[in-house]
Amino acid sequence: MKRGLVVLIVCVLFGLIMLGAGVYAASSISSGSAPKSHSTELPVSTSSAETEDGNVPSPGIGGGVSRTEATDTVSEETEPVKENSPETDKSAAPSPTTDNKSAGEDEQVPDHEPLYTVTFNFWDREPIWAGTDGGTVRGILAENGYTLDSLHVPSIGADEWISYDAVIDVATLSYETVTLTEEIPYDTEYVYSDSVPSGQSSETTAGVPGYKETTYTIEYVNGEENYRSLDSEYVTSYPVNQVITVGTAPSTVVEESAGGYIYGADGTQYHYSKVITVKATYYNLPGGTASGLPAGDGIIATDPSVIPTGTSVYLKNDAMDLGVRIAADTGVYGAWVDVWMNENSPYYSIFAPTGVWEMTCYILD
To answer: Which three-class secondary structure state does DSSP give residue 271?
Structure first.
């Protein structure tokens, strides 16, 4: 019985010792300091117990600290360090690696060289040189600060895709509305009169031009007229035709000679029976003649009493050599011939403006 009581007392004492050791260990852990061996306590307490002036008190000599006080000092001073360490403080400044990453994200990657070069040549402004990887004419211009409008027309369609080096001319259009006063030319009318001697003519009505006001819209391309459209036309005065009265009364035939030879412009020698002086006009009506021959070059109209129908004549003067003609038509009177002549005749530009010429007529055999 006594032996069992002794064993119980020993167990209780051992339990109390173990309980005290557990409490001490828990206290050390909660204060941030683990129990240290005697060999490591002094250095830690010495380095942690520095005074404000930097002097370290000697352990075990006056003014020193015990191991327990040193442990408490180390615990109190190291706790703030643990709180501010990078491992525990989430608000600490980023590491150099983090800083470099952020800087790289803010930097812009340099553009690459454009694949194509497009030159725009304008008439009314400086050229535009544009680099592009491809785009429409309109889009490339817009990227370079120029908006294409309806008055500027590129030599390539505005919506055509450009994926090559190109030189494009841009024409400038402009428009102007003008009102002009224009002359209306008069025509010339010939009136034949048998009360006027054959070979005489006179202007009985003077020609007067008319006038009209015409409004046009003119389109210019690069400053030069390209097209004009008629907007309106208003006649302010009508022309008055010139009237020339030509005499048809028979006149005395003037015979200059009776018979001989003449060399024509073609080098041919012709024999004539007589020579007369006549007045000559021209006509160019199509159709047939009084003799039945068709009207055309080489035909003249005569007064059969002076130059019988079917007679060949040679006509000339100092200004013109009309050559051989055949009297195949009628409708004139006296010493008068009407020469068929149209705009294709070589002497038309000389003969037509005057209207009436004096000519030598050789009556050929």
So the answer is: strand
